[in-house]
Design goal:
single chain; alpha+beta; 2 domains; 6 helices
Amino acid sequence: MGSWLRTRFVAGLLVTVPLIITFLILRLLYRNLNGLLGPWLDRLLGWHVPGLGLLATAMLVLLMGLLAANFAGKRLIVLGEGILSRMPLVRAVYRTTKEIVAAVALPKGQGLREPVMIEYPRSGLWSYGFVTAYIEREAAGGIESLANVYLPSPPMPTSGALVAVRLDDLYYLDMSNEQAMKLIVSGGMVAPPRLTARSSVTKNDD
């Protein structure tokens, strides 16, 4: 009887906990996004319309996207970014946030690239990450090819470490970026039973 109850309770947790976490995250997003313009619109209209602030925020984001897609809008955005770049603290926050959003939101190849494994922070310990760029470094023996690898920290992938790795030390995971992010954010609980990784030499031979 005890084993039966424990099994059913664990099964219930597996269903309920993700639903609760999803609800809490969505509620937090709703409150924050709706709170950006909601109070101002309430005062303007004289009454409260649920979700109006969220809708207005979404329309504002769409408008910014439309502006960024045409020449005049791009000039305006560049002008605004130029003003922000003259404010030391604001400049640092804005640039960091913009780079994080771009890395996550841009298509593969423009933001987070291939998911990889590297030996870090020491030999024998493996860390999961994403290639963000391929670079070259001037070394004593000539030009050395490196990869910038971002190592997200669970459960908040927006914080982590950035390391430059020799291409020979990269092992490319045979999974999508989404699968790799789930693996990292879940602390390894959402993981395939067997990981397949190829070295950069093997990858280049394909």
